[in-house]
Amino acid sequence: MNLFGSRLVVLSACETGLGEVVPGEGLFGLKRALQKAGVQSLITSLWKVDDEATMQFMTLFYGQLMKSQSLSGSFHEAMTSLKEKYPEPYYWGAFVLTNNR
Questions:
Q1: Among 4, 36, 45, 47, which is most exposed with the fewest C-beta within 10 angstroms?
Q2: Using an 8 Å Cβ cutoff, are 8 and 66 in contact?
Q3: Do the domain assignments include residue 51?
Q4: How confident is the model at residue 34 (pLDDT cuts 50, 70, 90)?
Q5: What tens digit of pLDDT does each residue of 3-22 get?
Q6: What b/e readout covers 1-25, taking b as 16+ CB neighbours within 10 angstroms?
Q7: How many independent structural domains does the chain possess?
Q8: Distance, first Cα to last Cα, the chain
Q9: Residue range(s) defining the domain that contains residue 35
Q10: What digits encode the pLDDT tens for the residues 56-93?
């Protein structure tokens, strides 16, 4: 699969950033496969996420991204806004932005 030139892939589901540890190789999973295929940046989750909080996070993220075009800035703004509504890390801490540069 050739995804070179793809700026961002968002895997908005539960535990999309996890994989299997293979001795001598590291962590294998969908995240690594997409990085090897050439995706520049990924948003994944590390644990089971709340549906409502995820919807709000994605809405905030994409709304901010449309304004600024900055992935890291939009991610930070969405995360900060979600933290204000949901102080417990369970609701917002699962999301990870990974850059493959």
A1: 4
A2: no
A3: yes
A4: confident
A5: 888 899 888 765 555 455 44
A6: eeeeeeeebeeeeebbbeeeeeeee
A7: 1
A8: 18
A9: 8-99
A10: 999 999 999 999 989 999 999 999 999 999 999 999 99
d(CA 92, CA 74): 14
Does residue 60 form part of some domain? yes
Whether 1 is in a domain gets the answer no
Using a cut of 0.90, tell me whether the model's pTM lies above it.
Answer: no
Q: Cα–Cα distance between 86 and 93 in angstroms, integer?
A: 10
Phi, psi of 52 (to 5 degrees): -65, -45
Contact 52, 31 (CB under 8 A): no
In the chain, the amino acid numbered 32 is R
